[in-house]
Specification:
Length: 251
Amino acid sequence: MDNNSAAKPKHNPSGIAKWPEDERPRERLLSRGPHALTDAELLAIILRIGAQGKSAVALGHELLTHFGSLQAMMAAPPSAWQGIKGLGKAKFAQLQAALELGRRATLPTIREKTIIRSTQQAAAYFSTRLRGLPDEHFRVAYMNRQGRLLGDVLIAQGTVDTVRPSIRSIVTQALQANASALIAAHNHPSGAAEPSDTDKLLTRDLIAACHPLGIKVLDHVIVAESGHYSFADSGLLDKLGLETLAPMPVR
């Protein structure tokens, strides 16, 4: 046997179907359970097939090397996925769906059974939803009089300079859910949790739009890596509410 033949792998790396059955990720998962697989092998099952000259496992390894970890993959913006060879639209969609399921699995309770009755509970709930995201998300939780969560809606998403939550959309969703109260929340992907002037104006306008309809704005929570900010706990929510109820000056 020459040196070249001795150096050949025992299976073709570009085709998992040609590997011995006890080495294929899917078969190993079925026989031993998902805990027996590496991160790259689990990714390979989601990807299903590799790319030209590389198996799905090899592609999984490349993704982990590119991002550094599964956690970094979950936090990566869409732009970070561009240009990765062998990752077309279908594979990208499959991975994003799996990563989003992973995020949602970390939620503390089933949404329909979630009750939010304090600012601490609101901060904990939205921290799970918003912390670690690469761009800014603006969400609103709608609740009944008992504090039971009726819905949790993503109102706007984008960079800090482009996110413009629609007051009309927030109120429309509240009416459709027959909500008695709501809590707004958004994240600051980088920086402190302190509210900007835009955040304050938006909260004031939201209170003004909801008050005539009998819908109470309970809080506006800002989530950052360093912690969170509560308009209610800071007293700013009450201050903004008084501003909206103040009579207009006579000109």
